[in-house]
Design goal:
The protein is an alpha/beta fold. The chain has a single domain, classed as Glycoside hydrolase/deacetylase (TIM Barrel, Alpha-Beta Barrel), CATH 3.20.20. Strands 1, 2, 3, 13 and 14 form a five-stranded parallel β-sheet that branches. Strands 4-5-10-6-7 form a five-stranded mixed β-sheet, with helices on one face. A three-stranded mixed β-sheet has the order 8-9-15, with no helix packed on it. Helix 4 runs parallel beside helix 5. The longest helix is centred in the N-terminal third of the chain and has 19 residues.
Amino acid sequence: MASGQLSNFLSIDVEDYFQVSAFEDISPRSRWDGFEPRVERNTDRVLGCLADDAVKGTFFVLGWVAERFPGLVRRIAEEGHEIACHGLNHERLTSISRESFRQDVRRGKQLLEDLTGKPVWGFRAPSFSITAETLWAYDELLDAGYRYDSSVFPVKHDFYGLPDWPDSPFWVQSSGDGCWAPDGFPALEGGYRMPSCRGRILEIPIPTLRLLGRKWPIAGGGYFRLYPYCLTRWGLRRINVVERKPFIFYLHPWEFDPRQPVMRGARLKSRLRHYLNLEKTEGRFRSLLKDFAFGRICDALVSPNAPHIEDSQPNDAGQGTFIFPPD
């Protein structure tokens, strides 16, 4: 881990290659059990990279994966990483009902908590699908017991995007009539203070690079494979050094697997997005871990009412109280 730098958040979305939204037309949920699973071996590659640099991160685990590979979930947690929820079946919120989503986030949370014996506070929607049409998701996340979300990508995209929303961590505030909106920036020395009242949830959006009057995606996924690493490093450093803000970075285990089976019948755009530069991911990721400081999201959550929150205790620096005890 790099030292003397702003600490950023590292996140891994644990899903398999045939579960991505770009392939949903040719790979429906009913066919998943017929594909060769590669998520366990690919996640092990990610864990190996993190262990080599003593980096801890947050793993947003798909419930479908957790049900079939419970040992993988336990292994991630035992190695000191945070377990968060990525839903059950990788269904975009724009394609399911509110009732289905309600059941999904509750079952996913309970499944992961049963496997690890630890509370699950974080959620990330498949394909960042909290949009202007699905803001009701925040009501369901709060009711299910989540403390933070990381589903907003403030760009324009064919699958996702809230381009007018902030690209640094912020509270999302309920207006009481089913509408939600950003409510200021809660940055504190030592972390993000959890509210003592209901009606707010912490959103940790995917950051963008502000350049030439536009916001450019820079912090992970296909963009990490598309851009030369020198450009990614420059952009992320600019966020840390010039804007003095942390960023959250995301990747998927399947992006470490250039030998994965090819999904026949996928559209050209989907194939280009999915298979581009897979052979370069691991090398770039190892460089990233050396060039930037990373940690778990849970280590930045500070509660004003810590005695009433499960598993809380003072952190090593004595600044506030973290929801999760330090390792």
